[in-house]
Every structure is written in C-alpha cells, then in structure tokens.
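Table S2 (continued). Query chain:
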Amino acid sequence: MKKILLPLLFMMFTGHSFAAVSPQAESQIRAILPNTRITQINQAPFPGMYEVLAGDNAFYVNPENESEIIVGHILNTKSMQDETDLRIAAERNKRYNFNKLPLNQAIKVGNGKKQIAVFVDPDCPYCQQLELYLSKNLSKLTIYYFFIPLPMHPLAKEHIEQILCATSPAKAIDTIMVKKLSAAIPDKSCLTKADNQIAQIQKYSTENGINATPFIITDSNIVIGGFDTNALDNYLGVK
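Corresponding output:
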C-alpha cells in the first residue's frame, strides 16, 4: 500500500534546472501511479526523486520506492516563488488549446473581438459573480459557455436545460445566473437533446481535468481558474 507523506509540504530550494527524464524512470513512475492521469514528469532537485504533475496536483516520487509518495510544492528561497505552481500553470496553458475546444457544443454569446470559453455551473456563486462581470464587458467579448452541473447544486441540471432549450439562451443565462430566477422551457421535446449536450460536456470536462467552476480558457490559451478579476482585467485591458 502506498503512503502519501507530508501532504502540502513546501520544500525549500534556491533554484534548479530540470534535466530530461529517462524512459526507464518514466515507465517505473507510471507503473507506481497506474490510475493517475500524469501530464508531466520532471527530475526533482533532490537525489533520486521525480516531480510528477497530474493536472493541478504535484507529487514527488522515487521510482525505487513504490510505497511512499510526497505531496507538496517547491519554493525558490531566492525569488520566493512557488516553482511547482509555475510549472503547473505552464503545463496547463499548453494542455488547453482554445482552437481545439468543442466550440460547436457551446452556447455562444456576444460578438466581441476577444474570445473566451467558460466552464460554469449556473448555480455556482463564483460563476454568478463571473457572469455579472462578463455582462459588463460583453462589448469586448465573444463568450462560449460550457455548462457543467456540479453535484452540490441539485437544481443546476434543470437550470442548464432551461438555458439550452431557451429561445434566447443569452436572456436565460441572465435570468438564471444574474437575476437568480428560473426560465421557461418553451418546447419540452428539447430536453433529450439538452441532456445529451450536458453529458457530452461533462465527459469532455472529466477527461480534461476540469472539475471545478468557473474555469476559463482565452483565445490566447491563457487559463484562468476561478473568478480572478485581476487576470480578467489584464486579459481585457480593463483599468
């Protein structure tokens, strides 16, 4: 049985350049973590250890010790930067390519120059705050909405169905996410198609490690996790 040692441990180092990982080491590491969706493996700055990135998670593994794994981040004591976070962010930005998103499955709102894809749950409070922000900057944006009903919001799926089946999805988004009201479904026969669309987006999100909302991907492949007004202001050039 594998032990996970020192969760959320911060390792203190003054800087390190990561060398290439041998095929043998990579094979051993993948065998130790067979059910982990590994996105990157780097040599760690301490002997015999490798940094394993799995989405937004980081592990430190010794291929010769299959029973113990360290969970934590590396802090550069000179710059005081979290080096692990920097690598996770860089890997995330490479992983999510705006032009490869299934945009044909999204609800498109706006005709602005800048394009973003937003993965949201209509009942998520931070998603509702994001929607208020986006509505104030809609002239600058084309927004592709991917709706994910999270388990903690029992009415989310019903609200997504109302948006997908609405005559004007943009108005339904405003009604549900800003005004926090329900929207009518004019044609109940739409529900089967809507449920299929929800299932497809959930499948895509799960396969690509998008399990929290809001999650934003810009047309320049910048990833913004959560409702980060500073990151959004920088992207839109808002002062």
